Structures are given as C-alpha cells and as structure tokens.
Amino acid sequence: MDNALVIFFGADRVLFVFFGTEVYMTHLIGAVLYIVLAPFAGGLIAGLDRKVTAQMQGRHGPPILQPFYDVAKLLGKEKITVSNGQDFYVMCSLVFMVISGAFFFAGSNLLMTIFTLTAGSIFLVLAGYASNSPYAQLGAEREMLQIMSYEPMILLSAVGFYMATGSFNVGDIVTSGRFVFPYLAGMFAGYVFVLIIKMRKSPFDLSMSHHAHQELVKGLTTEFSGRTLALSEIIHWYENVFLLGFVFIFFANGEPRFIVLGVLVALVCYFVIVFIDNSFARMKWQFTLKSAWMVTLVFGGGNLFVLYYLRAVFQV
Amino acid sequence: MSIKKSPWIIHYDCSSCNGCDIEMLACLTPMYDLERFGIVNTGNPKHADVFIVTGTVNTQNIPVVKQIYNQMPNPKVVIAVGICAATGGIFRGCYNVVGGLDHVIPVDMYVPGCAARPEAIIDGIMKSIDILAEKQAALDEGVVPEEICGGYIYEGEHDEHGTLITDEDADAAEEEQDVGATPDQEEQE
Question: Is the pLDDT of residue B155 over 60?
C-alpha cells in the first residue's frame, strides 16, 4: 500500500485485519485526522463563505470565526424539542457522516463511502419528518428530492474512477500515478454541478436556506434548536470537507504538485459555488430534478461512454 | 461569552405602520450591515435569542406575541422598537390597544423613535446583548430560567377568530350567566 501519507509518516505497516481487510497505519491516520480536523476546516470554510458572500453583496460581513461562535452559543442554549426522536436522528446523521468521511480519508472503498453518506442524509430527512411541523416536513420532502437529484451523478463519478484507475479504493486512486482528470473531465463538470445541490446553495437551496427567501421558515431545521441545531451545523462542516475531498481526488495521483493542484481546484470550486449562490434566485424543484438528471446523463453518461470507447479501441 | 458574538434575532410586526419594520430591514442592508456583529435575522423563534417587536400590541396579536416568546429557548431578551411597541404611541387609548408590549411579555430594552432610526435599533440590540450575556451567566450558575427570563406565559383563551378573551369579556360573560341564573335560583328558593 503506497499511500501519499507515507511521505509524511515513513514506513507503513499492517495494524490489524478488519473483516478480511488489512488496516494500515496510514488508513488510521487519515481517518483520525479527518475526525479531528474536519470540523475546524469545515467551520473555517463556512466562515470564509459568509465573509466572501458579504463582500460580494457590498457588506463588511461577520468575522471569519463566526460559525464557531454560533455553534458554541447554540450548545449553551436551553433544550426545547418537540419530539425526542428528532435529536436521535440528527445524532445518527452525524455518526454516519463522520464514518463516511473517515472511510474516504482512510483511503477506503469509494462506493461504501457514498452509501454511508446517503444513510447520513436520509437520517437528516427522518429528523425533519420526526416533528409534526409542516415547515420541517415540507423541508424533508424537498431534501429527499435533492438527494434524488444528486445521488446518480455522485455514484456515476465513482464508476468513472473505477474505469479510469481500475480501482474503487480512494487509496489506490490518489496513488495511481496517473493524472485522471483528462479522462474524467465530464464527470468533474457533472460533480461540481450536483455539488451546488448537495451544499444547498442557490438556485437549489430548496430544503433549507441561509438566505432571506425563507418561505419555509428554515425548512428542514425549523424544529431544531440549541444543541440539535449545533449538531446539524457540525454535520454540514464534516460534509463540506468530504465533498471538497471528492473534488481533490480528481487531481491527486501521488505527486506533490498534483496534490497542491487538487487543493487549489477544490477551493476554486467552492468560490465558484458561492458566486453562483449569490447571483441566482431559487429555482423550482422540477428544474432541480430535470437539470441534475440531464447533466448526469450528458456529462456522466457521455464521459462513461468515452471511457468505454477508449478502453475498447485504444486499450487505454 | 459566545452568546455576545452571535445574537440571532426574530422580528415580529404587531400591526405596525411598517415604518419601524423598514428601518429594521435597513439595518441588514450594506449601509448598516448588522451581520458584522454576527447578528442573523432568523425568522424562526426556535433559533432566535433576541425578540424584536414593532407596532402597537392589540388584542388581536397578543396570542401571537406570547406564542413566539414561549417558543424561544432561554436565555432570551425582548426589545420594543418604536414608541408604539413601547407605550402604544399615538394609538394609546384605542379600544383594542393594550398600551405597550410590557403589558404582555417582559421587555428588556426600549428603542424610542417614530420611526426608530437604524442607528438607534443597532444601539438597542448591542445594549441588549449585554443583558443577554448576564442572563446566560445567571443560567450557568444554576438560577432557574423563570427568575430571569420570565417563564412560560399563559396564552389565554381565544374565541373562534383567534382574538384573546380579555378579563373584562370574561367578567361580562360571568355577569350574564349570573343574571340568567339569579331568577332560577330565586324560584327554587
């Protein structure tokens, strides 16, 4: 196992065998680094997001550390909840989100990562349904619709990685020694498109929004308060770091310059998404579903077709 | 104290003339930019720390004010923005006006003006944040919320239009019943 982290941590060795899979030192380090550092990175990204958004609107904006202040405050607020099931589901969602990201940064199987991520998203939808508030329930319905929109494209990207590198393992993909981006350019375009839906940015912020157009009050999170709301915010931080990590693996192949390129492109992608967020009004759900599936078909399916063609004709 | 750095507000308009509401929204624009203090206009009582009320409180919207207040988690502060919310303003003495928000829920801060200037509103919010921090500190020390933030406020009985049945109405209804009951009782006796 020739992981990029070996560069920093020297020799790699098998620690233990987990259900027939050998777990390496670098696996554990990747997972632990994600679990510990992702909330800080995610919170900083959220703070930068708010600052950049404010600057785009000609405002001064809150401090960069504002999301941390918000979460610290929410953790200290009184606990009022309509149904206890809701808190349990949000906790489950956090657990699955962390496991999903840990799998990813441990260099594990990409498909398993995506399925765990979906479980996390579904638990958040259940939390929305748990309260009888019409706003939360409508938010949950819309969230499900968003999952339906982005899921096919994310799954197709995993298939694309398999076609291009011959492995579903993130560890093998980032150390393949092959610059896969030219082979997966269509997948990348499609993935960045659905990233807007996944990050709940305008024009696809149907289920909950941080903008003023809040006809659903706060959609999915309407009935969350205090600690539960703080947890849902932390889930969002973990999620964003994972999603940007997914952008990173389109570029990383083990060489340091491509690692730098991957990080830069991930940040540029986030900036572009914030820019789109600030320049569009919200679209209808029909547009979200249709456009996401069209993009999946054209960019994802088209890219897959090209990969098959290259493999069949040129044995690439 | 992180609550001082992130007070989220909810704004409710009690049949205001919209003067104060426009000034309230002006606080969020690039000119005044409340968000630089970490203040977010949430529109959801369950997320909010600061309750801003504009306009005259009357019998029609008393239940709404009480409900929003009850749904906010502690610690919380209430700001009456504009003279209508503070005392009833020029509508004081009208048959349906109760004469100030403090007749309905406990108020921590009054922002005068007709309409209140954005600068005055921002000043009021920033001063109320100190009260919010004091309340948080007291709660952390173990003081029961009812002592400092006001407990659950009874929302009262409402008729089929959602209008609050006031004490006077209830007295009048009782009197009617008494009047109806008296002859029967006399007959029985």
Answer: yes
- Mean pLDDT for A112-123 is 94
Same domain, B81 and B168: no
Asked if residue B91 and residue B47 are part of one domain, the reply reads: yes
Angle between helices A285-295 and A185-198 (to 10 degrees): 160
Chain B residues within an 8 Å CB radius of A229: 46-47
How confident is the prediction for chain B on average, in pLDDT? 84
State which H helix or E strand residue A276 sits in. Answer: helix A256-279
Which residues between 164 and 183 in chain B have a beta carbon less than 8 angstroms from any beta carbon of chain A? Answer: none
Q: Indicate yes or no: CB of B46 within 8 angstroms of CB of A77.
A: no
Q: Touching check for A73 and chain B: CB below 8 Å?
A: yes
Same-domain status, B186 and B111: no
Q: What is the DSSP pairing of strand B77-81 with strand B109-111?
A: parallel
Please indicate, yes or no, whether residues B176 and B108 belong to a single structural domain of this protein: no
Interface of A with B in 204-223 (CB under 8 A): 212, 214, 217-218, 221-223
φ, ψ of residue A160 to 5 degrees: the values are -60, -45
Beta-carbon contacts of residue A295 (< 8 Å; ≥ 6 apart): A153, A189, A190, A193, A194
ipTM of predicted assembly, 2 dp:
0.82
Dump pLDDT digits (tens) for A266-305.
999 999 999 999 898 888 889 999 999 999 999 999 999 9
CA dist A316 and B3 (Å) reads: 58
* Same-domain check for residues B142 and B187: no
pTM of the model: 0.86
**What pLDDT does A214 receive?**
64
Give me the domain span that covers residue B171.
157-189
Same domain, B50 and B30: yes
* pLDDT (tens digit per residue) in B170-182: 677 667 666 655 5
Residue B28 placed within a domain? yes
Question: Are A60 and B73 within 8 A, CB to CB?
Answer: no
Residue B87: CB partners within 8 Å, gap ≥ 6?
Answer: B99, B100
CATH number at residue B81: 3.40.50.12280
DSSP 8-state class, residue B29: S
In Å, the largest CA–CA distance within chain A is 65
* Six token digits for residue A247: 């952008």
Residues in chain A with CB shorter than 8 Å from the CB of B38 are 62-63, 66, 69-70
Q: B103 with B163, same domain?
A: no
| Domain range summary for chain A, segments of one domain joined by + | 15-314
Q: What is the rounded CA–CA span in Å between residue B101 and residue B91? A: 13
* C-beta atoms of B73 and A225 within 8 A: yes
How many domains does chain B divide into?
Answer: 2
| B37 plus B60 within the same structural domain | yes
